[in-house]
Known about the structure:
The complex is a heterotrimer. Chain B is 34% helix and 21% strand. Chain B is α/β, with parallel strands linked by helices.
Amino acid sequence: MIRRNRVLAAATAVLALGLTGACGGGDDSDSDSGGTSAKAEFNAAMTKVFNPSDKKGGTIKLANSGDWDTLDPGETYYGYSWNFLRLYGRALLTFKVEPGKGSNDLTPDLAEGLGTPSEGGKTWTYKIKPGIKYEDGTVVKAADVKYAVLRSVDKATFPNGPAYFEQFLNLPKDYKGPYKSKGVNTDSAITTPDDTTVVFHLKQAFGGFDYLAALSQTVPVPEAKDTGANYKQHVVSSGPYMFDTNNLGKDFSLKRNPNWDAASDPIRKALPDRYEVSLNVNADDLDNRLLSGDLDIDVVGTGVQPAALGRVVGDPALKANTDNPTLSRLWYTSINGTVAPFDKIDCRKAVEYAADKTGYQTAYGGPLAGGILASTLMPPQVPGYQKFDLYPSPDGKGDVEKAKAALTACGQPNGFATNIAYRAERPKEKAVAESLQQSLARVGIKLTLKPYPQGDYFSQYAGNPPYVKANKIGLATNGWGADWNDGFGFLSQIVDSRVIRETGGSSNTSVRDPEVDKMLDAAISNTDAAAREQAWGAIDKKVMEDAYILPGIHAKSLLIRPKKLTNVFVSEAYAMYDYTALGVA
Amino acid sequence: MTDVSPKGRPFLEVKDLKIHFPTDDGVVRSVDGLNFTLERGKTLGIVGESGSGKSVTSLGIMGLYNKSNSKMSGEIWLDGQELVSSGAETVRKLRGNDMAMIFQDPLSAMHPYYSIGKQIVEAYRVHHNVSKQVARKHAVDMLGRVGIPQPDRRVDDYPHQFSGGMRQRAMIAMALVNDPELLIADEPTTALDVTVQAQILDLMHDLQSEFNSALIVITHDLGVVAELADDVLVMYGGRCIEYADATTIFDKPEHPYTWGLLGSMPRMDRPNIDRLVPIPGLPPSLINLPTGCSFHPRCQYEPRTGGLGSTTMPELSRAGGSKHLVRCHIPTEERQRIWSEEVKPKLEA
Amino acid sequence: MITYIIRRLFAAVLLLFIVSAATFAIFYLFPRLVGGTPETLATRYVGRAATPETVNLIAHKLGFYDPVYVQYGRWIKGIFLGADFDAGAGIEHCPAPCFGYSFITHQPVWPDLLDRLPVTLSLAIGAAILWLILGLSTGTISALRRGSLLDRTVMTVSLAGVSLPIFFTGLLGLLVFSYQLGWTAPGGSYTPFTENPGDWFYSLLLPWVVLAFQFSASYARLTRAGMLETMSEDYIRTARAKGLRERDVNVKHGLRAALTPILTIFGLDFGLLLGGAVLTEQVFSLPGLGKYAVDAITNNDLPKVLGVTLMAAFFVVIANLIVDLLYAVVDPRVRLG
């Protein structure tokens, strides 16, 4: 009877509130019973392991609201996929499996140690652990790593993958990968002096090459089993789990790989017997299933949908079962120096001063799901982050006086009119544009909203320099997430003026400072990690001084902590739960 | 009229029958105090314009009005059983079995999706607990008797595959399949062309004598009445305004409305089409009947009532012929005079 | 009759051609009208780090440099003769009917469609049975008890059914029946019939009910209107005059005739559903054609869009044909020469 009433109440509440804020009374209070369990509280899995356990067995159920970009280690380009891929593949290096800051550090996986640079960072050598086997029992050889990296270079077959290797490796001219350029000698780029040694030869010194060695593209691929674009149908495992079933676009499951040797792998606990992943699951339903415990993890790890957010925030019992990590993602607005009067630095600074960033935060869902106000490009968790605010204002609401002073300095004391572009399909960007329209109007800068289709946003409109100039797109909403937590990964694609293409389509659309380019080159080739990190902070500051970018917020996500799982913690490297550590209670 | 029955009840007796329909605009008094009797083997013609209440009367006798949207009072005695106060199920069992009906437009009155045979079989099996095969044989028989050639083949045809006349024959077969004692034919020939009309009327006449059933023919066409009826009841505005045997109605009608009907009757023997004079004006609204005589607004003899016509409803009272009843303020003698001196010559001219 | 069917089938094939050409045109011509180039089209199918060379490669690989009619011709040819696909490590042959390869996943489209059809078929058939039973019965009763409390209740509920979107009723249903009460399967738990009929039924029960709720609402209204109309027909009076029991009058004579127009609408609805019950599949994460279509469209995956559009169009055309043929069976007046 009580149960019935509760359901009825829930149903009524749902009807009243339109699916938000209903069904508070779950059985969450039971979850902190039992000796080993930690106390379920907000952010309990951020800096320490929640529910530590070494119990083996069980099945972990995950779901993805979209399709997996691809399961092929040579092409996949999503953080969650890299996180998950470690279950069935071992790259040369990987991020440490531990909570908090430590997870940003690299640790050897297939390799015996971190890379050894020589020639001032132009050559990187890795020794791989002997005797590591694929699922079929064959031994992983250095040549397999070489082959895996080379095949990922074939962008006709793997157009979506990261392109760092072809950028840095000293590949033969017009090399198109092992399929098209069969038999071409590639020793100028990668050599394998013996079965356990891989040596990478770069075009230029690159101090952060270890991060590339941690890409899933170094997960070994046996050439005999490679089927090109179809390899994702059956990836040959080198990790603790291998594919059991794989229905592309629908679901797949992993089972234990009998040829995985725990002794060779101090990183992974490999607790559960099975992982089951459903794809293309309705996002709102996914949240409901997480909350009901029918599902363990939203594998994409970007947090709950607005509907569930309302429920979680409004209910302390639910909120106690969530974690709120900061993502390595900046939502920002490009200030285009090619559009007058933004060619004058003080006019750009006027925008930096006048903008009310709380509007940015509200547009993205508030402090929990949206993010924290940003005054720098790099988010706090990226090594090298320096805290500074060149354009301070009370509560981030903007400094009208300073903005007006800047306007006077650039010869536009009464303000001016310009356009702001945003992606038409993104209501959050529209809200940002409207909020900026209001806050900039306070100093006389009149914005006209210009929505563009997101499919062609960068290639044809806001990221197409001639179009920007001709149509006076002074401001353009933008966003960027790092491939990994490192200054290079975060900054190079958005502040290097040399990545800007006149034909459009580049991520950087506004930062054009030769000084910054020089600073980047210097930092990239520096093999001293500490000095490098220092340099990233300096570049960040320089770009902010140039006022080419108006940082909005550093994104955060609200993750629902799986109730039934053990060893739950957020890896800062991926800004989501570490999928290799989990176990089933 | 109750006085026509000397002892015991007649086969069909309708007493003070009222059928009213409450609507949002007011009560529609379709039938408002009707009396008549009918014996087996006899035919009563009920005549009137559309909206006079003649069809409502027939449907009322059949019990086809829903108590939820109509009000019925008075008495209907069929072979000793009162129908108005009987339960719906009692009347349903009589319907189609003891009393049956032939409708005006057989195309719309027969279900378009079922074959003729199936519809007749259905009618038979409601009241007879027999197999489909037996009922089908019976249906084929009936179709043969109503003059449909090759009935064993046409039994599987659908209504739309029949000609109009054939359809009406089939309809009659369906009505007669249970050998009903009372047969009501509502405008049985209106939808048919003239030569077919005659055939159907002949058929009905023959069948009636064969089955010895009582027949009520509802029509606006006095020609049909002339062909079939023993007695005639003329209805206007839900009431009987003249009642007599057929001969009297045609030879010595006394109500001006009946005169009008006769005037608008096409006759084979009279080629002069321009003699066809429709009665001027429209039938009255059954919600707001005119005060006084319902017919007075359309009656050219109304001035001769000395003002009574517009104030008082005349009684249905005895007139010239035996069992001749007329509802009119004009005195009998004057009516007979007008008929023989003013109206009849014109009609025969 | 046979010539009629052949003529209709021929028209159907022609229509499918037009549909495919139109889809093709929308995809290729519209972007061009606003200044798109083969490269801008190709940028949709490369990663965020793609260089101009990669874009170029992909534009070539997907054939965007060819004139649109050449691309269309190639696609048509694939359907009849099959096509080859460069999978990198080797050439893969896609036998006829080859509806092309996904621009994104590089998987052939036709096996996907065949794989997803049973899901949509299961959903549509189950829901159709439910909504016909529910819609027809409530509509009939409503019509026969016109103006009664029952009638008004049914009409109000059906108004809700017609106007409440599936993503509301579906999510609410999941929340209450799956997550609170545990009576029905959670979203995304489709099991093929061939694998386990019991699980199949369990996994589809709620989607059936939710989908049927919406449809039965409109069918109740249609049935009610149709019944009110037929019940005033002359032949209903005839049926009563024959002394038929009221139930037989209502069902055998009234409902039978009222069903004919509903049959037409049902054919169309059912045909459309076979093309994918988009919202239902979305809400319940059922891997059917509708979900496939949505995913294809959001990803601008033309071969998938084309394939699923054609399949949907095919079902609508076939459903129409079947309805027309059935019409002749149901209504003897419409016998075809």
